[in-house]
Design goal:
- By secondary structure, the protein is mainly β.
- Among the domains are: 113 residues, no CATH class; 38 residues, no CATH class.
- It is built from 2 helices and 29 strands.
- The strands form 7 sheets. The chain has a 5-stranded mixed sheet with strand order 1-29-28-27-26, with no helix packed on it. Strands 9, 10, 11, 12 and 13 form a 5-stranded antiparallel sheet that branches.
Length: 323
């Protein structure tokens, strides 16, 4: 087999496998394995919106497009939590006045924008609503509780964590439970760490873990900036970071289910097996049930490869001008 300079440049180890084919049409890649096919969009999929709900007997706590709603049989209550965003319990006077001024200027709203996380312990639902300014930057998160053991339950403001989580989803899943305490990874401005809330003592805690958190998945994979100028990707085991790789440039996870894949500039790496692949500078990566679809350039692609994720070996290819 003749290996072209382009193939060498991209670092693909090609493996002949007639079971797989790769095609492209109308902004969609078509992966075939035998008689079965899968369509993979060139665009990243939009996150699916969902309703977050908790129930105890006839009582409900629900987060949806109306904000936070509670129900008790035929009684109901809805709250966009406007009072929380100017509460002296979690904000200083100067911060409240600044928020009021920004609301008047159209730069903020008093209503909660999204939900960063939620959990239930016993009969109490804990929610972490998030407020974002006009350009989408989060400026506040607050912990509220709904006690479903009580008739006609309404949300109660408990306080705020030491920083703000990395949640960017409309309905996120950033709250965790560890040893009976609520936990969330946050950036404080001067450090990143694990913030906690103990329902038994109503105590908020914080343990600093590093300089700045760049990515953090609920099941442990994370990316952080170090104090000496590098980017570290690894897994948080609850007490420390177990490193996978370190780079001088940026790093990001490839979103979606399957093996953990980290991109660092023009390199793609399987975090578990250590297999590494060199990418074209303008390449994009999408997940498929059969592997990874890598194509370049990201807009109007001319070439694409279907790659097995564990060893990063080529399964199929597509070139512009072919079906």
């Amino acid at each position: 087999m003749v290996i072209t300079p382009l193939a060498l440049l991209l670092g693909f180890a090609q493996r002949s496998n007639d079971q797989y084919t790769l095609g492209y049409s109308s902004d969609t890649f078509v992966v075939r394995k035998g008689a079965v096919k899968e369509s993979v969009s060139q665009e990243l999929p939009e996150p699916k919106s969902k309703t977050v709900s908790f129930r105890r007997d006839k009582r409900w706590a629900v987060w949806d497009e109306r904000g936070l709603s509670t129900r008790d049989d035929d009684w109901s209550f809805s709250d966009r939590l406007e009072a929380v965003s100017v509460s002296p319990r979690i904000l200083k006077k100067a911060e409240i006045l600044a928020t009021i001024a920004k609301v008047k200027a159209g730069k903020r709203t008093r209503e909660a924008t999204a939900l960063s996380g939620s959990r239930i312990i016993g009969s109490t639902v804990y929610l972490l609503p998030r407020w974002e300014d006009a350009d989408g930057k989060p400026w506040l998160e607050a912990l509220v509780a709904v006690d479903l053991s009580q008739p006609h339950p309404k949300p109660k403001l408990l306080g705020s964590f030491a920083g703000i989580s990395l949640s960017h989803e409309e309905k996120g899943d950033r709250l965790g439970i560890e040893a009976g305490q609520l936990t969330v990874a946050v950036n404080t401005g001067s450090a990143w760490g694990i913030a906690t809330y103990d329902p038994k003592t109503s105590h908020f805690g914080f343990k600093a873990c590093g300089v700045k958190l760049l990515a953090f998945e609920p099941d442990g994979p994370m990316i952080e900036s170090t104090s000496y100028g590098t980017t570290l990707a690894g897994r948080w085991d609850g007490t420390r970071t177990i490193p996978w790789l370190e780079t001088r440039g940026p790093a990001e996870f490839i979103p979606g289910p399957g093996p953990i894949m980290v991109r660092t500039g023009d390199r793609l790496r399987n975090a578990v097996t250590g297999a590494e692949l060199k990418l074209a500078p303008d390449a994009a990566v999408r997940r498929s049930r059969y592997g990874l679809v890598i194509f370049w350039p990201e807009t109007n692609p001319r070439s694409a490869r279907l790659v097995e994720p564990n060893r990063l070996e080529e399964l199929a290819r597509w070139e512009q001008g072919t079906k």
